[in-house]
Amino acid sequence: MKKSITSTGNNPSKPTLKGAIRKKWLYVWRIVGNSVTENDIKDFLPDLEHHNTIEVKKFDSKGHNSDFSIGIPTETLYEKVNDPNFWPSGVVLREFNFRNFFLGEEKSANQLATATTSAFNQEPTTAVFSPNSTNNSPIKGVDQFKLSVPHQNIQSIGNAVDHLEAVIKDLPQESELSVICITEHWKTKEQLENYGIEEYILYSSYCHDMSEHWGSAIYVKKDIHFREIQSL
């Protein structure tokens, strides 16, 4: 496995240049009342150091309860917020990272042309692209070309796209996502084109004529060169 060559700066922050605080994410759900807001959650959290840098994102829920993801900047504060004794009875907590958010695994390119099983609906899905290699390419065969292709049922892209970008940016370099497959975006084609994911291109989508609970889309990293397969 190729080792990451990334490193983190150790010098104190400068007035003109500061490093972003790395956050740990917590998924909190089954909070009674769909009217609970992100500010309500922030006000409920302990008033400790870095409290003003906490991020709270609410998920689009059609039920009577509210679900949130919380980005917490310090280990001490994370342990405090992740304590079950801190939350009311019935609220559920779970660490929230890309492994929770995306159900997928790295596959070689030749595996992508075979039917795979979705963890959500058990229906087969098939990839429709392949690497566009040339003789001058450092890639010596598609078997050596690795792609990370996660799938997520987001239940409305409207409230998920900002958090999706935040999770992607927080991934370590070795876990970079090549292709993002989403289902249940709930948008028409015209509406979906208004929701972009930074550094990704909306390459393929399936939409209804009216906005409703349906739809799928495939986003590809901008720096990936590929060609469409006309038939499998």
The percentage of residues in β strands lies in 25-35%
Q: What is Rg? A: 20 Å
Tally of strands: 14
First-to-last CA distance = 30 Å
Secondary-structure element order, as H and E?
A: EHEEHEHEEEEEEHEHEEE
Task: Output the keywords.
Alpha-Beta Plaits; disordered N terminus; Endo/exonu/phosph_ase_sf; 13% helix; single chain; globular; 232 residues; four-stranded antiparallel beta sheet; alpha+beta
Provide a descriptive summary of the structure in words.
It is a single chain. This protein is 13% helix and 27% strand. It folds into two domains: 24-96, Alpha-Beta Plaits (2-Layer Sandwich); 101-228, no CATH class. Mean pLDDT is 68; it is low at 1-6 and 99-144. Strand 6 and strand 7 (124-125) form a beta hairpin. It has helices spanning 38-44, 75-81, 98-101, 161-169, 189-192, and strands at 24-32, 55-58, 65-72, 92-96, 106-108, 116-117, 124-125, 129-131, 146-148, 151-153, 179-183, 200-206, 216-221, 226-228. By secondary structure, it is an alpha+beta fold.
Task: Present the secondary structure layout.
Blueprint (H helix, E strand, L loop, with lengths): L23 E9 L5 H7 L10 E4 L6 E8 L2 H7 L10 E5 L1 H4 L4 E3 L7 E2 L6 E2 L3 E3 L14 E3 L2 E3 L7 H9 L9 E5 L5 H4 L7 E7 L9 E6 L4 E3 L4
Parallel strand pairs: 10-11
Antiparallel strand pairs: 1-3, 1-4, 2-3, 5-9, 6-7, 8-14, 11-13, 12-13
